[in-house]
Amino acid sequence: MHVFHVALLNIMNNAGVGTPSGPCDWLNVEDYKSMLAVNLNGVIDVTLSVLQLIKKAKGRVVNVASVFGRISPFGGPYCVSKYGVEAFNDSLRLNVAPFGVKVLCIEPGFFKTSMSDTAVLKSNMKKLWDRLPQETKDDYGPAFLDIMLEQMDERSRQFTDGDLMKVVSCMEHAISALHPRYRYSPGWDAKFFWLPLSYMPSCLVDRFFLRYTPHPKVSVL
């Protein structure tokens, strides 16, 4: 689903597809294409279709990306698509600044939405596992899927924020404030965990993620 809002010659892009997501070698190129078509290409398509009007009106473009456009703690096309939105947002901001157009980016953390529904995410993970060739299943081992599903429940309890008004407030400020911020990061996890982690050296970030994610053929972490 791609949702956008145009009012007073401002545009807000909010594309929301979170599955299929899983380890990169559980996926195929069609999985990437289907998500990129919505999360990235949809944002670009809608923006370019009205950009000339936005320029004439000196309006605003607000793109909803994700904190996972800044750091990639899991495999699959979601982070790829959100990194793409970030790149499009940054280049567009510079391109249209001389026309008086403001381009803003919202980078939410984990919030309680249909995209973060663990039942949906776990169902997706099971479907990906079921279609894997036996050789790949053997690489990971029989316990890997169960451990991953358990950790998804745990991560949801740790990070998911139920107050969507934090995101809505950022959207409102980006659209209406006289001096909007270039980037908004709603959610305590985005501000105090994911974004600080994204500035750390890659070797430390990798070590952290590898410590707290299941390993192939390892049943006890």
Helix and strand topology:
Blueprint: E1 2-7, E2 10-15, H1 29-39, H2 41-57, E3 60-64, H3 77-96, E4 102-106, H4 118-131, H5 134-140, H6 144-159, H7 165-176, E5 183-184, H8 188-198, H9 202-211
Parallel strand pairs: 2-3, 3-4, 4-5
Antiparallel strand pairs: 1-2
Helix pairs in contact: 1-3, 4-6
Structural overview:
The chain is of the alpha/beta class. It has a single domain (2-211), classed as 3-Layer(aba) Sandwich (Rossmann fold). Helix content is 53%, strand content 11%. A 5-stranded mixed beta sheet has the order 1-2-3-4-5, with helices on both faces. Strand 1 and strand 2 form a beta hairpin. Helix 4 (118-131) packs antiparallel against helix 6 (144-159).
Supply the helix-strand structural class: alpha/beta
- Spatial order of the strands in the main sheet? 1-2-3-4-5
Mean pLDDT: 88
Quickly count the domains: 1
Which short descriptors sum up this protein?
221 residues; alpha/beta; Rossmann fold; 5-stranded mixed β-sheet; 5 strands; elongated
In summary, what is this structure?
The chain is an alpha/beta fold. Helix content is 53%, strand content 11%.
